[in-house]
Amino acid sequence: MATNVTKEAAAGRSPEPVVRLNGVGKLYGNVRALRGIDLAVRPGQVTCVLGDNGAGKSTLIKIVSGLHQHDEGEFLVDGNPVRLSNPRDALNLGIATVYQDLATVPLMPVWRNFFLGSELTRGRWPVRRLDIERMKRITDEELSAMGIHLDDLDQPIGTLSGGQRQSVAIARAVYFGARVLILDEPTAALGVKQSGVVLKYIAAARERGLGVIFITHNPHHAYMVGDHFSVLRLGALELNAARADVTLEELTNHMAGGAELAALKHELAQVRGVDVEELPETVQTPSA
Ligand SMILES: Nc1ncnc2c1ncn2[C@@H]1O[C@H](COP(=O)(O)OP(=O)(O)O)[C@@H](O)[C@H]1O
Ligand SMILES: [Mg+2]
What we know:
The protein is α/β, with parallel strands linked by helices and 288 residues long. The protein has a single domain, classed as P-loop containing nucleotide triphosphate hydrolases (Rossmann fold), CATH 3.40.50.300. Helix content is 35%, strand content 23%. It has ten helices and twelve strands. The protein has a six-stranded mixed sheet, with helices on both faces. Helix 5 packs across helix 6 and helix 6 (162-175) runs parallel beside helix 7 (192-207). It is globular, with a radius of gyration of 22 Å. Bound molecules: adenosine-5'-diphosphate and magnesium ion. The site of magnesium ion has 2 residues, from helix 2.
């Protein structure tokens, strides 16, 4: 797949998407959580999904990760329509999700968490036991390959910083064959420095040819690593643009509800009986 990416990039074309949504909609009873969602996730690219609370971000990734089913539109993997029944179906297609509340066991060593649920063993029953040496070696190799350097793989994973734990989870997904990596607000609970750590590994995953779906409500984080930006508002796509077609300022404006703020400013001006132009220029409307 890596050669495909290079070939297509050299030809100036975008690689074919691994995951594509066409006009996807989702209803929870009478609540319409999503409508008309178009999304493409390509190898070696980061697709950012932005939006305020309740915009539908989690619903969208629950569909792609196999937790929920879509009610409308098409969900394609490698160009074939799919209907996933559970997260195992998604994993089998190479779609892995790293959730905000990481599924790690804090008191277990880093290497143990890396192989949690997929432990390597050696020997045959009744003398079958964990292949600790091999698990440690592979964990070390895989973390190094992602540029992650930990002093001691025997330390409990709970002693790592939030950013480091996210990084281990990303390296783990890569090792277990993910082609698409979904990250649900990985930087939401982190400070500036730790966020930087996670953004670095998002970039590393992209360099290794993965398609990344990066959910965030921080336009600055999105713009640092994103190739494509999809902004959700009330369950619909408000903006769907490639990096070349949107500036950080425009993205920030969409996230801040630029149009809504402009309308509010207009109303305020009327209430106060002043000219809109006399109000301080705190809101800039998107130029495009
Ligand atoms: N399981 C559910 N049942 C009913 N409504 C839901 C459910 N999950 C989400 N919703 C509704 O769907 C909308 C989108 O929610 P969500 O996808 O969680 O948004 P976000 O992740 O962007 O905050 C909200 O109005 C929310 O209340
Ligand atoms: Mg959410």
